[in-house]
Specification:
The chain is of the alpha+beta class and about 160 residues long. Helices cover about 25% and strands about 20% of the residues. The protein is built from 5 helices and 7 strands. The strands form 3 sheets. It has a 3-stranded antiparallel β-sheet. Strands 4-7 form a two-stranded antiparallel ribbon. A hairpin with a 5-residue loop joins β2 (about 45-50) and β3 (about 55-60). The longest helix is centred in the first third of the chain and has 14 residues, at about 30-40. The two termini are about 30 Å apart.
């Protein structure tokens, strides 16, 4: 039901000509920022799509339930369908309180990178599964999650 794709340039024009009566509206830069913040709150994952041009042509904002690219990457291990982000999550073990066993960050992680450790009563991170979308951080009330550069972690630096 959401108009989840922000189309730019030729893709916008193709969409308009292919579906002239389809739902589409022009947004200002500020309106687009507000839409992206709303999609963050809904748990949508942002994906930038490029064509053979020097700029992005689509900023897709899907949930993994509906996103064809994410389904191909997660379910079928088609690595080129979606690449991981330049940042990954880091859990500050001192700040993490596990939210009393009901950690919203675990629920928000669409990639299974976060889990709740009942013994330690803290969140655990599997870096190999982290896509760097940042949705977990946005739902961490204790500020225990931070995004850090993937390049600084040798074991995953080149894992896209």
């Amino acid at each position: 039901d959401d108009m989840a794709c922000l189309n730019f340039g030729p893709i916008r024009d193709m969409q308009r000509s292919a579906l002239p009566d389809g739902p589409m509206e022009e947004l200002t830069t500020e309106e687009a920022r507000e839409v992206l913040k709303l999609y963050d709150k809904k748990g949508h994952i942002h994906q930038v799509l490029y064509a053979k041009m020097p700029f992005p042509v689509v900023l897709c904002n899907c949930s993994t339930q509906w996103c064809t690219s994410f389904k191909q990457r997660i379910a079928n291990d088609v690595r080129g369908a979606v690449l991981k982000g330049h940042d990954v999550c880091e859990v500050d073990r001192q700040l993490c309180d596990g939210c009393g066993g009901d950690a919203p960050c675990v629920e928000r992680c669409a990639f299974g990178a976060l889990s709740y450790d009942r013994e330690e009563e803290k969140v655990r991170l599997d870096l190999s599964k982290c896509f760097g979308c940042g949705l977990c951080r946005d739902f961490c009330e204790s500020q225990a999650l931070e995004m850090i550069p993937r390049a600084g972690i040798p074991e995953i630096a080149r894992s896209w």
